[in-house]
Amino acid sequence: AFEAWWNIVMAAQMTDAHRRFLQVLMSHGIMEGSEARKLHRHCCEIHKAYYAHDKLDDFIGTINRHLQPLFMQIRKGMSEGDGRAHYALVNLAETEITKMASDYTENELELFRKTMDLIILSENGFASSTEILNLADQLKTKKMKKKEAEQMLKVFVEDKWLSERNGEYTLHTRCIIEMEQYILSNYQDVARKCNICHSLAIQSQVCESCGIVMHLPCVRKYFKAQTEPRCPQCNDFWSCDIPGMSQMDSPSPSKRGRMEKSSLLSSRRC
């Protein structure tokens, strides 16, 4: 099936520069924006195609038009940690975690789903390794030893489905881009979109008054020039600590919520 799909793409009326770009992106799974821009230039130079440094999105748009009949799309997303742009190839026809089904066993997929549950239902968008490893002997498909579960967590990180920092796990940018619709459909009560960039927000802050959510990088960017941060939706004072803003610069400290553990581990309910 993959070979037939690839042959259709290869036969489409795209230049070799477009095809090379797509092939490299597929091999990486996900690509950071600066790397994608370098690849864009490299592909155009190698194949003597038209190149303009500010036309990457147009270049990708051409590829996406040819991918549309195949229900595939290169999507742009943002790292929730630093706000940098990333690009990933998404299968629009998949309604569940079917992309992973060919790479993992049933109990490995169950471990991932349960890990995703912990992360999305948490207050800060993270789950500790202890919490996840405690799931190992609760799997319905086939129980795992904790050492096996620990190894699988490493594999999920290597495959860019999870990110790990100091024993805390969150969803990798690749996972968020590729599974956004799945998460929004399956976690309707808790999954929310950022009020600023309108993408799925896992690590976020919540307005205490109206309940809108914002990514941490979006919070930082939106409130950067404001002397007193106010919610973009209801205009009430934003009581959460703004990532990257020092205590000296922080407005109305007496009104602020509790301090964040860090900009990466800040609570959604600050």
From TrEMBL:
Domain (RING-type): residue spans on this chain: 194-235
Domain of life: Eukaryota
GO MF annotation: an example: ubiquitin protein ligase activity
Key words, A-Z: Chromosome, DNA damage, DNA recombination, DNA repair, Metal-binding, Nucleus, Telomere, Transferase, Ubl conjugation pathway, Zinc, Zinc-finger
Gene Ontology biological process terms, A to Z: double-strand break repair via homologous recombination
One Pfam family it belongs to: zf-RING-like
Protein's name according to its UniProt entry: Non-structural maintenance of chromosomes element 1 homolog
